[in-house]
Amino acid sequence: MYAEPLDRVPLWLLFVALIAMSWAALEGGYRLGKWRHARTAEEKDTPVGAMVGTILGLLAFMLAFTFGLAANRFDARRQTVLEEANAIGTTYLRTRLLPEPQRSESARLLREYVDARVRGVEDGKVAEAITRSEELHELLWAEAVRAAAREPGPITGLYLQSLNEMIDLHAKRVQVGLRSRIPVSIWAALLALALIGMASVGYQAGLSATRRSPAMLGLVLAFAGVLFLIADLDRGHEGLLKVSQQAMVELQRSMNAGKPWPGPPPTP
């Protein structure tokens, strides 16, 4: 659901593939450079070095741009989790404004709603959690309509306002967390530029008739590591950099304990 093509590749396999492709490009460029050096004495190392520097500069710009894009969206996902927890907590408190039996039923549905969302992230079943959340939206709204029909007025309207905000934040979280991803075109341009950069570095090394250096491996690992971090940031629910669900977990504990939601603890 809302999967990008790269999502089918596990992050560890993506890292290995990036190392393999970068090393292959570097080695291919090195061998081509040695071949050119042996057959074309007129090609000088200095102009080639200037061109390689330009390519690496473009690559650095693309890496910085893409990393910033992924980091901003990662922060947006974390903020949306906090906003949603606050909205659900407020809605849960305002169920007390409803008449019975809508009061108890709405509170029960909201507890199930939070359980489904926390469990969906923890178990990696996000699509199932979204489907169940949307079903619970319909049930919660139906209860709210019944309560408004029984006791119309501004008090019930407060609950409807909170419930509507909660549903809107669900849509926002789906948009920010699953649909707002790095476009495939940017990934393709970044990977192509990275491979060209590795090949050009290898070509310059071969053209200057230098031996293979251990620094080449370090260069490959560095670029593969940065690309891996970008991919990790782009996926909010897997890998090393996961969006914290602590606000939702704290809300879940508070609701199950029957305590009012105090909001998340302050960030130190």
What does this structure look like?
The model has no long low-confidence stretch (mean pLDDT 85). This protein has 268 residues and is mostly helical. The protein has eight helices and no strands. It starts with 10 loop residues before the first helix and ends in a 12-residue tail after the last helix. Helix 2 packs antiparallel against helix 5 and helix 3 runs antiparallel to helix 4.
Secondary-structure element order, N to C: HHHHHHHH
Structural class: mainly alpha
Overall mean pLDDT stands at: 85
Largest beta-sheet characterization: none
Task: Spell out the blueprint of helices and strands.
Layout: H1 11-39, H2 45-94, H3 102-122, H4 126-150, H5 154-179, H6 184-207, H7 214-234, H8 246-256
